[in-house]
Amino acid sequence: MNQMLQDPKIETSEVSQPPVPQDPAPDHPLFAKPQRVAFVQACWHRDVVEEARIAFIKEAEARHLTHVDVFEVPGSFEIPLHAQVLAKTRRYTAIVAAGLVVDGGIYRHEFVADTVIKALMDVQLRTEVPVFSAVLTPQQFHETEVHYDFFRKHFAIKGVEVAAACAETLLGLERLRGQVAAGIVG
């Protein structure tokens, strides 16, 4: 009987496996012209909201949106004015807003969230610069680690979703404006 004794301190090398092929990154369409996006982030609960920004930038880069300028404002209520000023510069082809509106017990958070969303829609319609919202208002938010963890993950998901919506909308507007210029539509 052939036995081999091994010192438990000596690691044996395992047979190396060939690398598992990864799914290639999805091919996202290219833009005809470079796009510049403004990302306006509220600082209230920054550690939660920044997850949207981080995920947005990563997904935006994968979708060929490589020019993203980040702006911070104190809270969500201040986002619409910044969005309007940025849209009027005509430097940005899109603006993304991210914030967390929670019930602070002083005023109705639904009122604040509703006001912010309506103001962002107004900016977009007045300036024809698309404005996207990752301004969220949870039904309940308690300053516990469980809620912070949940909303950090949720904001990361929303960051990816808003990047996809932004890229797809900009591609659609680029096609539509091309059709209008060519006299196909309009």
Write up this protein:
By secondary structure, the chain is of the alpha/beta class. The chain has one domain: Rossmann fold (3-Layer(aba) Sandwich), CATH 3.40.50. It has helices at 46-62, 79-88, 109-127, 145-181, and strands spanning 36-42, 67-73, 94-100, 131-136. Strands 2-1-3-4 form a 4-stranded parallel sheet, sandwiched between helices. Helix 3 links the parallel strand 3 and strand 4. Helix 1 (46-62) runs parallel beside helix 4 and helix 2 (79-88) packs parallel to helix 3. It is globular, with a radius of gyration of 23 Å. 33% of the residues are buried. Mean pLDDT is 85; it is low at 1-15.
Low-confidence stretches: 1-15
Report the sheet with the most strands, covering strand number, pairing sense and barrel closure.
4 strands, parallel
Overall average pLDDT: 85
CATH homologous superfamily label:
Lumazine/riboflavin synthase
Number of domains: 1
Intertermini distance:
88 Å
Query: Beta-strand level of the residues, as a percent range?
Result: 5-15%
Short description:
The protein is of the alpha/beta class.
Keywords:
globular, disordered N terminus, 186 residues, 4-stranded parallel beta sheet, 4 strands, Rossmann fold, alpha/beta
Q: What's the arrangement of secondary structure elements?
A:
Blueprint (H helix, E strand, L loop, with lengths): L35 E7 L3 H17 L4 E7 L5 H10 L5 E7 L8 H19 L3 E6 L8 H37 L5
Parallel strand pairs: 1-2, 1-3, 3-4
Helix pairs in contact: 1-4, 2-3
Protein name: 6,7-dimethyl-8-ribityllumazine synthase
Catalytic activity: (2S)-2-hydroxy-3-oxobutyl phosphate + 5-amino-6-(D-ribitylamino)uracil = 6,7-dimethyl-8-(1-D-ribityl)lumazine + phosphate + 2 H2O + H(+)
Keywords: Riboflavin biosynthesis, Transferase
